[in-house]
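INSTRUCTION: Work out how this chain folds

Token vocabulary: learned, describes local backbone geometry

RECORD BEGINS BELOW THIS LINE
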Amino acid sequence: MTIASIDLGSNTVLLLIAEVTNSEVKTIKNFYRAPRISKNLKKGDFFPKENIDRLISVLDEYKKIIEGHNCKVVIAAATNAFRLAANGFAVAEEIKKKFGWELSIISGEEEAKLSFLGSAYPFENVNSKSLIDIGGGSTEIIYGNKKEISYKKSYPIGVVYLTEKYLKHNPPLDSELYDMESEVKAHFDELKNISGLGEYAITIAGTPTTLACIKNNIKVYDEEIVDKTLLNFNDINDLYNRFKRMKSMNILENFGQVVEGREDLITAGTGILKIFMEFAEIKELHVNSRGLRYGLIWDYLINKQNKLESLT
């Protein structure tokens, strides 16, 4: 069976086309667009019409792709921007009417659980793993293993939020960077009291996959290379120090297609990763190109199997 899974994030909209059995999710194709639905959005605001128009344009494109692959099931979930917007549910209903897809607006904790499921499942072993998922409007951190989740939390700090709130200049001023880092540190302070986070740490989403491309000196995204990349603290720290002294257009010129759509956001994202590694005492991060869109499919399969078992 061919399934389409759509992750509607605050900055990006990701589409996964996958061939699915009860025990395997085989990637056919991944698609990435950055309509930035959360641009200039604050909690309780309405999505501006131009933001909705950009999103609908991407979904029009994705609908053709989904139909071209003859997908039997379409699973779609929206995250932080839809949680914040006053008209989030209304836009979700508009998408349902236009495309026929049920769009779930998931909580931060549910997002964390599904991202963990998508990147660390099926487990090779039961050893605990931690995961950080940096989005446009929020960052999820989760720690657990095949049997149980020990910690999960959605923090209201993402790359779009931090960039729009603090990094007003291009490149940012030292005072702006200090204020941004201070907010991230205040949120992450509790991580100092959680043991085991650094034993095996996974990082997903656009910031780390972009950093993996830069570390490997590739200008065009390559999922196979990305999934084999380890980012240590020196990698993150060195790139953060480079980005924060560069204009966004120079970041794009220097690093090419892999940063397109996030050249103005990569500084904030790298700053989040740096502080996470410091506070959680993590020496290296395992970059993973999967995440929420894979977790949505695994969750669908698990629920389907549970329903079948309940009937027998």
Summary: The chain has a mean pLDDT of 92. The chain is about 45% helix and 20% strand. The domain at 122-287 is CATH 3.30.420.150 (Nucleotidyltransferase; domain 5).
